[in-house]
Amino acid sequence: DHTAARNFDLFLIDADGKNVEQVTDSPEFDGFPMFSPDGRHLVFASNRYGKQRGDTNVFVAEWID
Predict the structure, then answer these.
(1) DSSP string of 7-45?
(2) Domain that holds residue 33
(3) How many domains does the chain have?
(4) What was the pLDDT predicted at 65?
(5) In terms of Cα–Cα distance, which of 40, 51, 48, 50 is closest to 60?
(6) Are 8 and 29 in contact (CB under 8 A)?
(7) Residues whose CB is less than 8 angstroms from the CB of residue 29 and which lie 6 or more positions away in sequence, other chains included
(8) What's the mean pLDDT when you consider all of the chain?
(9) Are 21 and 42 in contact (CB under 8 A)?
(10) pLDDT of residue 6
(11) What CA–CA distance (Å, rounded) separates 55 from 36?
């Protein structure tokens, strides 16, 4: 199944490899995450909500710790 091969989600993990927290849960590709310089926003690319196969959207989420 081609869709399953593209299933990537975002996780947050401490530098020591502990405290793994899943950030996204989508059957589509979520990747290339970056925090804003002030740490208040998470930006990532995703294929979710694409009108055509391969469409990529950019999402900006307010990061609340």
Answers:
(1) -B--EE--TTS---EE----SSBEEEEEE-TTSSEEEEE
(2) 2-62
(3) 1
(4) 77
(5) 40
(6) yes
(7) 6, 7, 8, 45, 46, 47, 56
(8) 88
(9) no
(10) 66
(11) 24
